[in-house]
Amino acid sequence: MDDAGSFTEVVDDLKSLATNSRDPRSVRVGNVISALTDVIQGGVTPGKVYASTVTTLEGTLHQDHGDVNIMLDSLTTQTALLKILGVVVPHVSAATLGATIGLTSRVLRGVVSSSLSILVNDSQGSLLDTNDGLGALTTLLCETCHTVGEVLRNLTPSTVQEAAVRQLLTGTVLGLLQDTRQKVQNAAKNSLSGLLLMNSPRCHPAILKATTKYVNMHIDNYLKNPSNQNENQNMIELTGFLGTSLVSLNFTAIGGRLMTILVDLLNEESLSSPSRPVFVANSHGSTLKILTINSILSTILSLLEADDEVGKKNIEKINSFAARVLASLVQARPTLSFREGAADVDLLESGRTIYGQILISSSQRILNSTTSTIEIGAKLLPMALQHLLGLSRPVEEDSENSIAETLFLEVSQLLRVQMRTLLRDHPKLHQNCSRDCLSVLKSVIDSPFDKTYTPVLDCLALLLQQMKMEEEEVVKCIHSLIKLRCDDTTGEALQRQIDGALISLIQGIGLEQFWKIIDFPKLCKTSLKGTPNQYSWVIDVMKISGLIVSDNRLHLSFFQDEVLPLAREFDAIFVKGSTGTTICRSQVINLWNLFPVFCRMPADLDVALPKLAPIILKAMNDQRYPEFVTVICTGLDILASGVFDRKDELKELIDGEEGSHVRMEAEVMGQVSLKLLPSLFKLVDSLHDINSGSAKNPEDDNEMDTPNESIVEKDASGVLAVTRSIASIARVAPTAQIQRLFTKVVQRMLESSQSGDKKTVEKMCSLLALSQALVISECLDDSGISLLYRSLKPIIRTDETPSRIQKRAYKVMSEICKRYHSFVAEPERLKEVMELLSSTSATSQVSARFMRLKCLTFVVDGFEGSAVDIRQGITSSLIGETLLCLKDYNAKTRDAGFKLLLSMNKLHGSSADFIRMVAAAVGSKTSHMRSAAVTALSKLVFVLSSEDIDVHNMLPALLKTVLILSEDPSREVTKSMVVFVRVSVSAASSEQLEPLLSDILNGLLKYHRGKDRFRKKIKIIIKKLVKLFGFDALMPFVPPSDSRLLTHMRKLSEREARRKNTRRNQRRDDTRDYEAMADSDEEDSDDGRTLATGMTRMSRMSRISSGKTLKRGHMETASFAQSTKSGRTKSTTMRIKSDADGNVTDVKDLKTVRFSESPSDESDFEEDMEFDSSGKLVVHDMGELDSTNKKGDGDTIFSFKSKRSTTSERSALTRDTRDPTKKKKKAPNNGLGSAYKAKKAGGDTKKKGQKFEPYAYMQLDGRNYSKKNRRQAVEQMSSVVHRGNKRLKRS
Q1: How far is the C-alpha of 469 from the C-alpha of 153, rounded, in Å?
Q2: Which of 625, 622, 741, 763 is nearest to 676 (CA)?
Q3: 958: which of 203, 633, 869, 1288 lies 20 to 30 Å off by Cα?
Q4: Is the bond preceding 448 in cis, omega lying within 30 degrees of 0?
Q5: Using 50, 70 and 90 to split pLDDT, how confident is the model at 66?
Q6: Do the beta carbons of residue 602 and residue 556 sit within 8 Å?
Q7: In the predicted model, what is the mean pLDDT of the chain?
Q8: What are phi and psi of 1166, to 5 degrees?
Q9: Which residue ranges have biased composition labelled Low complexity (predicted)?
């Protein structure tokens, strides 16, 4: 029982329902609780409210129910009282409940009996039950079940006798379990299930006994007459209740009885045909019987999967029961019962799925139990798998089967958990069980393979992982999988599934063991006679499996002793040049692709790497296989990174075998690096095309820096892989060696910088790549970094440096700024670095500007934790340059500049102060800087306004500041200003914008006409303002000269609204047009196609005529705007464009109209207006209509052709009937410059008396470039100037 304070809050909450709720039932509850508390004398306690509620409820049961209104009011009050009683009971003491249980039981049973009597005796009871008003019988009975549950939940066995509890439960909840109303039945089930789940000792024993008696009674009734339909339905409803409650009852006895019924149903045979037994699926009334089977199976499955508190408490009993269930089900014949017959397919497939899930769940429980039942589970598991294979087949051949996927996904979980536990604890038992399971599962891969069993492949792989690889059956099974994969009839989907199964198998047993089991060299040799690359997919599978590090560590010695000899054999065949040499070469490359796989944590690195290093170096320099460079360097990168990471993790270990082994690996790797690094350094040089310019004209050497002769690396991916491997190996190499190599690199770089030939460009690129790799390794000291920095300064500073060299120099500089920030952050050097990077903005090549900004970004990011004055000093020194970068014509540079701007904002600390700093640049002298400042403000507002409230509050002030630039004559500034206004209008609130409407509109409307107009952008802004404030609010602020713009926009908006309304009405009218619906064939489900003939000619004609009928019906109801919108979809002529931009076509002007010159077969009477290529409106003659449209609904023939049009048609027909083999004369070309064109040759000619050269002068006319004639002028110029890619033309 709770304290008085909490109960007072409960009462107050109930009273508040009268005023705070809109639900009539809740309002009645509030009124009733107020009335109850008003009559209580003294303090309001739970006991007094409880007693008053029960007494009042009893009084409502004896009222006269002759009048329906009185009855409805009585039921409403009872519902409210039951609601109050259910809330109050948890606060009443157990002693009080026990003392008054007799009265409470009598009242609650009276509510139920009174409600049921209304249904039986009162002819108007159905009205009360179906009407969703206050006091409905369904609501009353549901509330009664809930209240009874609360009362019984708060009773204790010591305070009340079993007879009183049994009487209350039987008269209320148990009786309503069979109610015909689903809501009442569910409420009773939920109430009783909640009581049972409390379990002993909280649950009263009388509840358990009464429920058990009720369940057994219904089971007995079913067993007396199992073929009765009502008893089957009662059994289905009973099992639905037991699905959540069986675990709380005596499930051993009740579950045993249910299993007896289930087995009898599964083995039921019809006696009508002794020669041919008919099982459930084919017997009379099979649907109801299948439903009964499924409901019993669902109940058993719920018991086996119970993992709540009650289930964990009875885990041993459930495991013992699971053994009985499994033994019974493996002896049944489920596939004969759940087969295609009278029952619905979905029911049969659901039953198969549940049956299989019970088999799996039972096996899992048995294998997890004690030793006595584990042996039974191990023996029954193969039989269960055999049943699962049978259940996985679809009921219908053409149906999509998801049973196998569902069941064998759970089988894979069983193999991963329970079978591995069995292998660990009982290896002998596991060996016998796995052998029997393999004999069952391997049958699915026998030829021909059934795609139904595709999910079984993963389970087969998991089972093979746990078996001994020496067994003959295991080897045969793996070879069968490979054979199935190589079969020509195997589809791509099945191939992917087999690949996945083999990948899982390799990860479980290890790549080396898989190699030995399948004897991969032997497979490859046997395939040389037929298809040399037949097993190349196996290498891909092994490579993918190596991406995940498993417990099976590989050995570099295996790669050297097993993989490389096979690669040498294929290489020998490739050298001989026999048939299939290309395939042999690809096989060599595929085998070397396994090298990175063996480099992932090898177990014998300290022993095998020194032996393997010479072979690696030789392979990297093999000119026949340039692909080896990327593969080998990737493996070395993985190898060195792994050694460094393990050494870093175990650097604190002083003693121990693991620590000593890691240190040994690091030492060996350092010794091998003495040979690897010099070779890798030379390899970087060889990957750059040193002699790329030797084949070119020597006279062009001085044009080395021109963009057209930029030198490209032979293999950029190879250079990247080599530099990464150098960076990784350098971290584990001896420091002395790194310093020695670094000194040589810097020395060679200084020597090469003095020369300017093309070879030097490639040499410098390779040296800078090596320098970048050493910087990335972070193995250089401050003196080395200082030397490198001094070497980079002259390369970065001058604009005479080739673009490739300068870009790579900036890359090295960015790595220094990122990884050696402490070196850059020294006060003197920071000043020097900032001056260097800032002063090179004008001398940087286009391709290097992005990297320069990247360097600045790394510098800025490194000062994030510094003092405020230092951070603000850096941002203030870079702000001007960063703003100008936002206006760069290179997109990557602009993006890098914006990233730098955001980093500076983050470093500055306050976004508002930073934006003020940027806004100060609006007053710059140059228009370029003012435009850059406004662009920066636009981007910052776009990103920060939704995240920072201070920035959002600054928007009005920023708008006022930027709108000052509306008087700026620069188009660049104006464009930036318009974009900023657009961004600010979208980000600001209406309250912020309303005081600025006059300034915004006056500033924008200056640029909607004339040469500097930004009409489209300005109209978008005005539309946004109209959406916020409306036309009437904006009109007073618009200058009189521009008011027509808003007026026109309003007309367009209203016109669009009318069109939408018309279309909406049109759709509604079309659905009500009987003639159109009667004549239409569009609702034919097969589009005129039949099973026998397909699309017939008559069906096509029917579809055409029906389309015209519907169209004619639309014309009678549709508006002109709608008819012009729905035009021919296949027309290639220009349609009338939307006049949303204010341009209205004058169709009365004959200059913009032309008549059609040729009839169109698809033209129709009501088709769209069209434009030709010159922009003139096309008006079709009536005679151009389709022949099917020449006659209307009557016999009248429409013919409005003139003699002229008829004559032109006749002449056109004559032209079409001429001999097609005769050559047609080309029409004379009257285009621009045609007077100079040669008739018998290409190009232009110079005639006698010609004053000007044909290519030197072309007379221009300003009238040709007006908006009206611009398109025609462009088409005339097409005969002289051809359009093309500007970038390509420039190059």
Answers
A1: 60
A2: 741
A3: 869
A4: yes
A5: low
A6: yes
A7: 77
A8: -115, 25
A9: 1095-1106
